Amino acid sequence: MALALQTYATVKDANAALKAAGTRYLGGGTLVVRAANEGDVSVSGLIRSTEPSLSTIAVAGDKVRIGASVTMAAIAHHPDLDALAKAARAVGGPAIRNMATVGGNLFAPAPYGDFAVALLALDATISTDDGDTPIETFLANRDGSRAIVTSVSFTLPKADSFRFLKVSRVKPKGVSVLSIASVLERSPDGTVSSARIALGCMADRPMRAIAAEKALTGRSLTKDSIAPALAAARDGTSPITDPIASAWYRNEVLPVHLGRLLLA
Amino acid sequence: MAKVPVQFTLNGSDKAEFVDSGTTLLHALRDKIGDTSPKGGCHQGTCGACSVIIDGELRLSCLTLAETCNGATISTTSGLSESGVLHPLQRAFLDTFATQCGFCTPGMIMAAKVLLDHTPNPSRDEVVEALSGNICRCTGYEPIIQAVLTAARSNSQNAA
């Protein structure tokens, strides 16, 4: 099925064109062209912008701004983004990573969107021409979002405080059973002073494990000490069921994998 | 629907065509230009059979719109042999029985070519990683991995 593609030099003009019914924004094509190929007749026109700022990565100290059109491969290879390389490499195979964009990953339905899980743990800010939005709010409202995402910004995590785990049945690459990202700040005595844990595939979009975060705060990262956090990990989850795993299975194995991540 | 012009270099030759806006590169290559080496498998970005190299990067032609490739340099498996002599990867796939039905082979070979272009002597793990977006349902992965390693050895011997 052929679709009319309109290309604009600026995000502003692309945003105006995106107001037309049936239009979708084209990033790397791994979501929207896939949908069209699958016969999604709600897509009748594609809009894209070639504004250069969409494709740039800016790192100033510990502040990072990644343009929405930046690919997973570009993040994985960026010398200042080592901490995120594992999460970027978790997305697809090499060809997909050369195409899939940061902006698109924010809209990827479970079981996809592993990088957005990392961004949620990092408490990223999502920017559009309409302003900035915390990622949690953005993800909650993404189905009705029409403004083109221009960039994501976040503070680089301190050394070793960011952890990421993707669980898949096929090695080395496969669709997620689940993914977990965490940012754990530690006190000098080794106890967790603050925790931010994000889960993928445990709802239709990335979600925080808020009960587990609370249960982990003030605890050390030992098997006994993290037990309350693991017991609380399933709080509020509503996992997807798909050919990879059932909702029941995902809930059963979540504490196991969260435990492995925390004790790694 | 209005036709749009697309112009790119395919395997060293300039190509120009008019396609419907929104036409995938896979469709343009196979049905307009006549290069049937990229295969249409899943059309979902899952199988890798349509893999081509665009400006040095492995891409999926089923998810790439042709008009976004204006001015690009594109390589497909059909352009690998020179004067009837198979590329070392093609030779290795034949010699190590790494192709059975052959449907995944062009995508596998393009994924392997990008790897060897950047990493002439890859480890087995690097080969597995490079092929991780390409699915084979009949040959089995082991002969394919061995073919890529064989081609790498062949290249390094020829360079020595």
Report what the structure shows.
The complex is a heterodimer of chains A (264) and B (160). Chain A is α+β, with helices and mostly antiparallel strands and 264 residues long. Chain A has three domains: 4-49; 52-155, Uridine Diphospho-n-acetylenolpyruvylglucosamine Reductase, domain 3, CATH 3.30.465; 162-263, CO dehydrogenase flavoprotein, C-terminal domain (Enolase-like, domain 1), CATH 3.30.390.50. In chain A, 30% of the residues lie in helices and 25% in strands. Chain A contains eleven helices and twelve strands. Chain A has a five-stranded antiparallel sheet. A four-stranded antiparallel sheet of chain A has the order 9-10-11-12, sandwiched between helices. In chain A, strands 1-3-2 form a three-stranded parallel sheet. The longest helix of chain A has 17 residues, at 247-263. The radius of gyration of chain A is 19 Å and the shape is globular. The mean pLDDT of chain A is 96. Chain B folds into two domains: 3-79, Beta-grasp domain (Ubiquitin-like (UB roll)), CATH 3.10.20; 88-159, [2Fe-2S]-binding domain (DNA polymerase, domain 1, Orthogonal Bundle). Chain B has 160 residues and is of the alpha+beta class. A five-stranded mixed sheet of chain B has the order 2-1-5-3-4, with helices on both faces. Chain A binds chain B through residues 1-5, 26, 28-30, 33-34, 36-38, 46, 48, 73, 92-96, 98-99, 172-173, and chain B through 1-2, 4, 20-24, 43-45, 48, 51, 57-60, 62-65, 67-68, 111, 114, 125, 128-134.
